[in-house]
Amino acid sequence: MRERLEQLKHEALEELKSVLDAKRLDELRVKYQGKKGKLTEILRGMGGLSAEERPVIGQLANEVRDAIDAAVTTHAERFEREETERRLASETIDVTLPGRKLPRGAVHPLMQVIQEIEEIFIGMGYQIAEGPEVETDYHNFEALNLPKDHPARDMQDSFYITEELLLRTHTSPVQVRTMQRMDGEVPIKVICPGKVYRRDDDDATHSFQFHQIEGLVIGKNIRMSDLKGTLLTFIQKLFGEDAQIRMRPSFFPFTEPSAEVDVMYKKKGATEPSWLEILGCGMVHPRVLEMSGYDPEQYSGFAFGMGAERIAMLKYGIDDIRHFYNNDERFLKQFARQ
Ligand code: DAH
Asked: Are residues 264 and 118 in the same domain?
């Protein structure tokens, strides 16, 4: 029995030496130490041993079992380590690889111009005011000194929703809403950017929907010279320090006197600079002040309004207003800030 045990130990350790994977290792473990394994089989025969022999053989059997156990464990650990290393190697992240490029959006050129204009006026102490695009006839026309049947209403062909509701034709109703909200308080210094709608046929310079930026200042002793100084500062910030402006007399029902402002500007592609019309403005009409709760004997103010598309077209040399709305990436990408 002793020889059988020695023989078994030798045989098992030899066989284990050449084992190459975990599956084979397990097969060998079962072969020797499993319920029907070779060692178990020998141990079963121990019942027939004498009392003196039994402890000696028992000890030897334990040694054999331990030796096989140790060999199995060593191999099992090695396989596990190798498996971990293999996995780590296959899952390695190369941090030096360049990242995947994600397509990045950009602020629309029109919104860039509006934001730039907002920032210039915020820098001069203005606040931003907003109003609804579906507007009442009262705010859009009447409170701006354009009563029903006033011929000047024809200047702004409108989309009516009902008799009393329409898509606003300009941002000037936000003047009215701001005065109503301020309820007689001064000073008022706001600009109001937003969408406006007119029944125009779309072409290179017209769109049924476009953007305006309105300005309104109300206080005590506000004069035409304040208006001119404000606009000159604004234009020079937007178009450059040497930009010049001129005011031409004009007519708007909500301002008196009224003017149109031209800027001396060299359009992209032009050889000479020329005067280009850029906005409408004037001193707020006493009737307009009065209707929104400001006593024209005490308060005065100026207002102005400009088309955002027109300014963006001048600034960037864009020749067709429709470029702003077609969402052609080749156009838009040129304005993406890096
Ligand atoms: N609302 C005018 C328009 O759409 C623009 C305008 C002109 C606004 C003079 C003003 C202003 O505030 O004073 O044509």
From this structure: yes
| Cα of 111 from ligand 1 centre, angstroms | 20
**Beta carbon of 141 within 6 Å of any ligand 1 atom:** no
Ligand 1 centre distance from Cα of residue 333 (Å):
32
Could you report the per-residue pLDDT of 105-146, keeping only the tens digit for each?
Answer: 889 999 999 999 999 999 999 999 999 999 999 999 999 999
**Pair 28, 66 in one domain:** yes
Range of 243's domain? 109-335
Determine contact, residues 152/140, Cβ cutoff 8 Å: no
Q: Last residue of a domain, which of 90, 118, 146?
A: 90
Distance of alpha carbon 227 from alpha carbon 204, whole angstroms: 31
Examine the domain organization and report whether 192 and 292 are in the same domain.
yes
* Position 100 in a domain: no
Give me ligand 1 centre to Cα 10, in Å: 105
Q: How many whole angstroms from 301 Cα to the centroid of ligand 1?
A: 14
- Which atom of ligand 1 is found nearest the CA of 284? 13
Cα distance between residue 166 and residue 114, in whole Å: 24
Domain count, the chain: 2
Beta bridge partners of 252: 255
Ligand 1, atom nearest to 170 Cα: 4
> Which atom of ligand 1 is nearest the CA belonging to 171?
1
Evaluate the omega torsion of the peptide bond into residue 249 and state whether it is cis, within 30 degrees of 0.
no
**Within this chain, do residues 254 and 305 fall inside the same structural domain, yes or no?**
yes
Is the pTM of the predicted complex or chain greater than 0.90? no
